[in-house]
Amino acid sequence: MRVVVENVEKTFVDSKKNEVLALEDINFSIEKEEFVVLVGPSGCGKSTLLNIVGGLLSPTKGQVYFESSNDKDPTLGIVFQEIALFPWRSVFENVTFGLEERGVSKKERAEKGKHYIEMVGLTGFEAAYPKQLSGGMKQRAGIARALAVEPDLLLMDEPFSALDAQTRTIMQEELLTIWNRTRLSTLYVTHNIQEAVYLADRVIVLSRHPGHIKKIIPIELPKIGRDQEKYRSQFERYSNEIWELIRHDAEEALKEA
Ligand SMILES: Nc1ncnc2c1ncn2[C@@H]1O[C@H](COP(=O)(O)OP(=O)(O)OP(=O)(O)O)[C@@H](O)[C@H]1O
């Protein structure tokens, strides 16, 4: 699946009836099997843009279109920061929820549920309920739920930002392993520069007031194993470049906070 975002603009009307231009002149694509990361300071419109790509919000101007080899409507898998698992459903029932909604047979649900639960490392926890899971395990279940519908495009909005640093590092590594197996076109939102450089094929750096694309940076490092010592200086160069692009905005955002 290839996704094209063309001339997108988004204006919100705030509680005082003032118009807020949140996004302006947004043009980019997500190529087939490409992992694109949106990075930028607080309030630059990352979530708004992800929601527009996911069809949860409509743009004020411009359009998003999907190009695939067949004509069917795209299936999207979405993972948010706070995974809203149904507390009354087990891990298995949460993971297969989307399949149930689509009328997939019980037998196929059992197979796919098992497969994706295994992929995220939750085998053995099929019958557990969300309240019995750690934060990292909840995110794993949320990822399995998004993958189980076998989406054409995976959308992830700060999926690991509520996790502690160690769990976050493990989840980033596991996400790459999963991506390597599924090769899903992915749009991932983060404000964490290291995370962006670690995961992305291309990083889209957004700026504020109004949210716009400052630069698109292809990360020319092997997809797996970027944290190895031999790539350290290149990794740091990318991180510094991105930081220089957003430093001013990040400082301004801090003053407003
Ligand atoms: N429903 C809304 N009504 C009015 N303004 C909104 C609405 N949603 C977002 N905005 C404004 O649009 C801008 C972009 O918000 P958005 O949440 O997309 O940014 P973000 O980059 O995801 O921020 P963060 O990293 O803090 O989550 C902000 O100025 C925000 O206040």
Automatic annotation (TrEMBL):
The keyword Nucleotide-binding applies. CDD domains: ABC_NrtD_SsuB_transporters. PROSITE patterns: ABC_TRANSPORTER_1, ABC_TRANSPORTER_2. Keywords: ATP-binding, Nucleotide-binding, Translocase, Transport. GO terms for molecular function: ATP binding; ATP hydrolysis activity. Gene3D superfamilies: P-loop containing nucleotide triphosphate hydrolases (3.40.50.300). The keyword Nucleotide-binding applies. Pfam families: ABC_tran. Residues 3-233 form the ABC transporter domain. PANTHER family: ALIPHATIC SULFONATES IMPORT ATP-BINDING PROTEIN SSUB, TAURINE IMPORT ATP-BINDING PROTEIN-RELATED. This is NitT/TauT family transport system ATP-binding protein. It comes from Mesobacillus persicus.
